[in-house]
Structures are given as structure tokens and as C-alpha cells.
Amino acid sequence: AKVRAPKGRSHEEDDEDEGLDIKKFIKKGLAAGQAPADLMPLMMMNMILEKKDGKKKRRDRGDKREVSILGGSDSEDSDSGGEYLGKGMKAVTTLHRLHESIRRRPRRIIEQFEQEVLKELGVVQGQPWTLRDWVRKQSWGKFKGIQRCAVQDVEVYELIRNNEHQAAVAQVIQNLKSKVQCVLQGGEWQTAWLLTGLQDPLTRKEFGGSREEMAIVSSYIKALHDLKKKVRENQAANTGGDDDDGDGQVLLTEGAFLDAPQVVDWWTKAFVNTFVAWGNFITLGCPSERGSGYEPRVGYRCLADARAFADKLLGEVEEFVCLELALGRLGCDGKRGCIEHLLGQVHCTGAACYAGFAQVKGKVSTALPVVAERVAMPEQAGKVDPCEWLPPDRAEVVRHLDRLRKPEETWEEVVASCHRVPPEEEDALARKLVAHNMAIPVREDLLPRDRDGRLLVGGLFSVAKNELEDRLIFDRRPENAAMERLEWARLPSGACFTRMMLEEDEYLRGSGDDLRNYYYTPRLPEDWIKHNAVGRRLSQSLSKELGLPEGVHHRLCFRVLGMGDVNGCDIAQAVHEAVLQKRGVLSEGSALIYGTPVPRGPSWEGVYIDDLLICQKCRVSDVIPQDGSFVAPPPQEDDVDVQKVAQAEIAYEQAGLLRAVHKAFRFETRFKAWGAEIDGIKGQVGTPLTVRRQLWMLLHKIVATGWCCQEVLRKMLGYLSYVFQYRRELYCLQHHVYRFISSMPPEGWVRLPAYILDELRSYALHLPFSFWNMRNTVNPTLIATDATPTTGGSVSTRMPTSLAEELWRLSEMKGEAVRLDGDCIEELCMEEPREPSLVASIVGKSMHWKVTGSYTFRQTSHVNLQELRALRRELVRMAAAGEHQGTVVVALNDSRVVVGAVSKGRSSSFKLNGMLRGLLPHLILGGVSVALLWIETAANPADYPSRGLSLPPPRRAPGWLRKLGVARNCIIKGLEVFAGVAGITKAHLEAGFDMGPPVDVLYGLDARSAWIDEQIEAGLLYWLWLAPPCSSFSALRNLDAGGPLRPKDHPAGNESVPEVALGNALWRRALQLAWKILNAGGYFFLEHPRGSMAWALAETQQLMSHQAVYMITLDFCAYTGIEGVHGTQKPTRLLTNAPWGRGLGKRCPGNHHHPPALRGARAKAAGAYPPSFCAQLANAFACWAATQC
């Protein structure tokens, strides 16, 4: 071969150039003038030749280049040649070749990837490595879910490389399950990852030892914590009580000491000041610099009233606080102690802490490993046959529990059970279960399985019971997924006592019993035992010890009810109730069931699974003092509760149920039951004081550190929700926290934002007040409110005590979860309260109501928001009045949303809950509680004033309502005060109405006499006519020689002038009587000249601003009745709340002449009302009264 110079040309190329050049030939032909049509064949031939040469060149070049992963040329990615690829199809073709190579050349892909991994990891020859190392090295950022998926893929890859193909397929299946579970839980991996069996790459190791060592150490730490608690309690008992009762000194700072009582007193006052400041902020908001909020238009109290309010709050806080709490040294026990331990590990340096997460795990679990010797069991389990005690219909259900099993296609998800029995404890536990007759071995081939042949086996774990024993919990979730729920259990609650009222001469005492290991006492039917398999397969040694046949596998099956059976609570509750009912205990009229009306009588009793409580309201001859000096008299043999306690003991003995005698108590006035602490003399019920104090300390520590995790915050909300059930209006404090918890990461500690810290502070501020006072009374004023999107209205009436107590008993107790637009019954999950609604509707139609408000809202809004605003307006008004303190206000409302939200205490609607939170300070400071009854719109009397309509007459009260004290009173008595010639009295007497004697000095009766007030308070007066003297208020007195008596800028005048002082006194007396009868539910007319300076007085303006009061303007000359004969025009105003006065406003027709204004004696003589006016007033009253009687 010849050597060619760079850029040189070969002879073959020269030969090609010397060949025929068709392009040149075509150019020459065109230049010579040849027709293009003749040259067309040559052009086509040239295009065909060029295309053929191009394909040959590409094929030749491809034969000389290296083949890539796609099986083509390495340089094709950068080569632009090829007409076909050059037209946009090259990328598509390359992608297709890549997809084909996954199946055609898999080994090449694997080898190339592994070479890249080795190069990136820097692995030298002979060094061991796995793909897990490469995954850890990658930067996944915030895509934690993708990182978990990569870990799953790597596990499958490693199994395939180890030739474990079946295990790899199983791992793929579990990985798929975990992804589905993650989707079902909204992206939450914590539970889903457990299905993979892999170590979570995002969690850190919690303990250095093995799992068994961790269980042993955690049990030791808990036992040590409980021991320290006992030592503290014994030391406190030896020193004579709590530390806060001592007179010792407390070291505040170095060299500074303060007496212990002074510390508690300072802390209490600071707490109350903070609480009042919080209430002001919630009610008034944060005012702007130039806003009107610096001068809020709210009610103010005199110093004496403010002192009374403050003393009441101080007393409640003093009962709550102790010295350890005030100093921040109070420790927690139980589950709260675990939370305290976690919080103690959080170290934050305030502003210098920049980390996103605190390095402390937030798991709070009460599940403990099972230690056989600590498990509490009866000597012989299963001694009671439920079918012998249950009613026939329920006994039949228990005999055939297999009928409750659902078809397998309808089963819930069958999850893996939690079995925390160490292998070394398995035989000992099984031996103990068999010895105590709690379980028996059953052959595995007889046990139920699912369609895939998997056994439905439960697990066992323990929870702490006391210092020596643990409760054994049966995790029966695999079998529970295949069962229907019986729903027999209708349980009581300590919150039922928030419906109890104690009179001044009554106290409460209680007796209680607890059954020992009651769950393991009722036995299961023989054919149902196989459905309660638990734990691992019995070992060969234990099978031989139990005398089981060799070579046959057995598992233990419970033969008694287990704590964890889906129907365990229902069957256990039904058996306990049936045993007691056969001895006359738990009668229908005295049994407590949470969410239903409480018993009417003095005996209250209930059973909560294994706990019995019998309570009795007892009465003494005198008022019970509240200073701690009262000692309850001993019980008598003929007392109802004494007899029922005796019958309960006999019932337990007959049924073979063992009582925990050390837990029993008899006829105590202060006791704990169902999680509540009840003081029957003080009349208080709530969560135990020690628990509330510990919760306060936990909140204090969370707020102080500023950090928390999702698990701890959820636990705290659970504790607080349990505390707030004794004063449900406190639930509205949980404003932002639920949404914040849902946005928290499932693991790790995060810094809490300021608004969440403020919310936690508000919980702590209300813990001292989170109890129910059974000494409260039902307010005799029944109110009803209603609203439209633009207007609102309210009415009220006085009700007898018996009716008030019955409405309180029937009022909504638990409320329901409602949204702002959730007023449709189909959208409500709670059953409709039919009985209270029916009773309330009849009451709403049968009572004599008076309008207390009819107004227009500042702006249009959603009707449910306006309904709540109308109710809140009335409650704030009543809370501001001192006479309603310590009462429960019963209210009727036709909004299902309002009734549900207010009764529940909160709403998931941010706007509704915000309004409830704004109402809370008024309720606490005013000592007012609210009880609502849902009624139909047609029965709501407030519907009329909310639409500007007059109230309709009440319907005839039915017999049962009359028995509650409601009777129709048709005697409507009026009284004319400052009567003069008594024209009003005469006209009404002539119309047949009862009138009192006219009150005037002319008749020897003084308007300032106390008998008028007494008759109003006794309900003997229905309406008043008030016309105080107007001589000193007349505008004509400005013409007096001595100057005006009452200048325009000072309508009260100079009270050093006797005439002015007398006029002011009589006018104020008229206002006093108007307010008194208005508050008593009656009506009034206040008459004075139109130009009187009395209308400008501040006291008059306050009465005029009342919602139920309106003004009538009239001219008495329009009532003369004789054409051409007219006296003075005498323009007059009437201020009234009477519904029959709206047609009295006649004005001068202008067709006659008025004489000059009269003064002196002539003016006094002309002050008599025209007879036609008096007659028309009496006729209007007669028409209205006819509709009322």
C-alpha cells in the first residue's frame, strides 16, 4: 500500500472524480438552453445514486467502530449523518434500542452498572462490597420515600446475586404490600415499612443491646421510677401532708429565701393575672395604635364586683397549686412519667439552637414484654358460663359466636399480631395458662385459616398493673378482622356526674367494687375455643409434659374472654349487668349510661366492665357548710344505697365472681371511680387533682423547651381531652393543634411555632378550672335565639324549677362533630336527639315569651355563623349580670350545627371554633354554663323577632307540661304610677281588666314605696304606666327669670335646686321601675313630652338602647274627636316594650289651630290624657290579651 500524505487524495478517489459527473452535465445542458423536461430523467438518476452511496458509506464506517450497550456505534450519538436520523427520528430509535437491550443484553447492563459502582465506591480488587454501600452514599435530599424504595430494590438485588430467587420474589411481594400500605396511610411509612422486614434506613438505633436486654432494662427503669414515687409519697405522709402545707422557707436565689406560703400565694396571684390577661386578649383582640380598641365598649364592674370575681378565681387556683408545682419540681408517674423522661432528654439552647430536629426519639409505648411470673391470673379461670346469666336472646348469640364471622371477601385487613413473649418465657407462660385453666392446647390442623392457608394466630403482651403484677393483653386482631361487632356495651363515665345538681342541704356518697381478673372469669363455648389461637407452636418438651401425642403440632387457644377480643367488652359488660340485675341492682330508673339522660331520682349506679359504683344523694336538715367542718352522718340499714350494696355482694357470691376487696370502698363522700375524683360535700367532680398538676408540669416543660414530637403531642392531647370532658367548653382551646400535628414528621422532634406554644399555654391556664361544680343551679330563665344571614333575635321566659331541671336533664350532653355547612341530617354521623327535640319543641310553643333582642348584623354572613353569634350575644349579656353566676343557662336553638358545636365544646370549622373560644372567658369569669336543646324551626319562638315579626300567642300546655309547673295565667294586672286624674286606670277598668290602685300623692300613695317592687318581683304586675312630673324638664322653663333650669349641655341640671333634685329623683324612680318589670318579663310605658330634657339623660339613653324597647311619637290633639275643638298640640313620646302599643302613634292632622302653650296651673290642668286616647289604649290591650289567654 502506498503512503498518503496528510489531507492527501488516493488514486481511487481521483478515478471517481474522473468518472461521469451527472451534475455538471445537467448544468451544461441548462446553460445551452436545453428544456428542463428533457433533463428530468438525469436528475432522478443522480438522486438514486447519491442515496445508494450514502448507505454504503455508513455501512462501511459501522463495521469499523466499537459496539456500545445498545449494540450500535459509539459515535452514532454525535454523528449527524443519515438522512433518516437527521430528520428527528434518531432519539426515538435510540430509546427503542435501549428498551430492547434490557431483555436482549441483560448481562452487559449488569456488568456496566457494577463497574460504575465499583469505580464510584473506590473498591480495590478483593475488597468486599454490596450495593447497600452505594445507596447510602447517594444524596437523597428530601425524597425519603424514594430512598426507602431504593433500599427495597437493593435487598432484592442482593438476594438474586446470592441465588435466593424464592426469597427475592417474596421480598418483592412484601415491598409491594408496603407501598400499598403507605398509600393507604397518606404517605406514612412508619407502619408500612414493618411489612418489609428490613431495617429502616431513616431511623437510628435506640438501644445498644438486644431486644430482650432492652425489655429487661426498660422494666427496671420503670420499677425504679415507681419505687422513687412511693418513697416520695411516704415521706410526704410522714411529714404530715403536702409540702405546700408547711411553713418552711424556699431558696429562690443565692442568699434569698421566701416562706413557702408566700411562694404559693405569689404564684397564685400571678396565675390569675395571666389568666385575666389571656381572657382580655381573646375577647378584645390586639388593638392597633390608632384604633378604638384602647377604649373597648364592654361592661365594666365596680371594685366590689371585681374583687368577688378575683377571689373566686384565686380560691380555685389555690386548690390547684402546690409548692412543688409552683417551684417546678413536681414529678410525674405512670405514662406521664414516660413523657416527662423524654422531655428531660431534650436540651435546647434557645436562640442558639439551629438544628431542625432534636436528637431524642419520641416513642411512648406501654406494651411490655411478657414475664410469666408477673402475669395476673385467677386461681381457676372460666368459672362463669355467660349463657346461664344472659337473657335468652343474648345467650343464644354467645352459644353461636360462629354466626358472627363474616365472609372472607368482606374481612378487614388481617394484620400481624403483636407477640412480645420472649422465646425463653414461652413455655413458662404456656404452662401457667394451662394450669390456671385459661387456655388449652389445640391441634394446628383444627385451627381456622384464611383462603391462603395461613393461621389466624393472635399475640400476647403485657401492660403494667401494679408493682407486682402485669395485665396480659390478647392481641386478637387477625381473628377480629373476620368478626362482626355486637355493640352490647353501653358504658357509663365519670362525666355523667357533670349532670348532677346538689341542693344546699344535700351531699353525695358512693360505694364501689372491683372484680378481680374479671375478664378471665367468663368462659367461651367449646366450639369457639379454636378461634382464639395465640403465640408460637408448643415446643416438643412442653407437648410431652402436657401428655400430647408425639408428631402432632399444637398451639394454645384461650378458653376465656381475652382483653383484646373485639366482642370481649360487650360480653363481659352484659354478663356483669345481668348478674347484678337479678338481685335488683342496676334498675332501669337508676342506671347510668354516658350520652343518655341521667336518672331523675337520688340513686345513681353503673357498671364499667368490672367496676361497680353505687351513689346516693342524701339530705340533711340544715345547709351544709363548705368550710370542711361537715361530717356526714353514718348510713342507715334502710337507706337505698346500703340495701343495693348488700344485694350486689350477694350477687357476686352467687355467680362466683371474686371481688378485689382491697379496692372496695363503702359510703364515702370523697372517692375515685371511672377515672374521676368526686367530692360529694364540696360538689366537685373532675380528673384527679394529681393528674391535672402533672399535666400542667408537662405543658410547662414542653413550652420551656419549645420542642416536641408528634407522638408526645398526641399523648398530651389525649390526656387533656380526658380532663376537659368535665367542662366541655374548654375543648375549643384546641384551635390549631390538630392541623399542626397532622403536618408534623412522624419521627423526630421539631421546634414548635409561637401560635402552638400560646395554645399550650392556654391549656395550662385552664387546668385549675377544668372540673364540674355540682353545687350549680339551673337558671330559671329559659332563652331561645335565632338568626338569618342578616338579622337576629332572642327571647326569654321564666320557667318553673321542675321544668328547668327536666330540660337540663334532657339537654344535649356530648354534642357532635359538625362543620360550618354540615346542617344536613344525612351528613351527620350522630343519631338525632328525638326525645329532647320533641320536649323542647312543645315547650317552645307553650311558654309566654318576651323579646329581648331584634337586630341587624353589621354584615351578611353564613347563617350558622349568625346563629352562633346570636347565641353568644345572649350568653355574654347574661354572664355580665351577677345574678346568673353559678347557674346553667338552658337555651333552645334550631341550628343543628350550633347545638352540636356548643355541646361538644369545639368544631373543626376554624370560624365556628374561634367564636366558641371568644365566648369562653365570659363563661368562666361569669360562672355560667350552657345547655342546649335542638328544636325545629317552627317551634323556635326566636324565629319571629329575628324576622321583625310579633310573637304569636302560646298554645295550650299539655298535661305533662302542667305537671312540671307550666300553667296559663290569664289574670293580667296593670298599674298606673304618677297617675294624676287616673284616666288610664279608669279606661282599663271599664274594659274589664284588673288594675291596681292609681299611684299618686293625690291618692296618698307614694311612687317610691317598696310594695311596688315587691309586687313586680312576685309576678303580680304585668305592665306599668309611668308618667313622672315634667314641670322641671320642660323647655319652657328656659324662659324663667332666673335662667334655664336645665341647660342643653347639662340636662340633669343643678340638683342644689330643690325642684330639679325632685324631678330627677322621680324620673330615676320611673326608670328603675321600668328596668325591674322589663327584667321580670313584663311590659311598661314611659310617657313624657317630646321636648323634655329627660330624654337626653344618660340613664334614659341606656334604657332606650335595649333591644326590646322602642319609641312612639304622638300628638294628643289627634285624639280629641270633636272637629274644631282642640286643645294644645302637646307633642309626646312613649318609651315602651309592649307589643300592643305600636298603633298609638297618631300625629296632628294639621286641620286645626292650636292655642298658645300653657304654663303654670293651666298647663297642669291640661295634662290629663284625652279620654279617646285612654280608650284606644285599653282596646289595643284587649285585642292583644285575647290572643294570650
Automatic annotation (TrEMBL):
Domain of life of the source: Eukaryota
Chain residue ranges for the region called Disordered: 1-20, 52-83
Protein's name in the database: Uncharacterized protein
Upper classification of the organism: Eukaryota, Sar, Alveolata, Dinophyceae, Suessiales
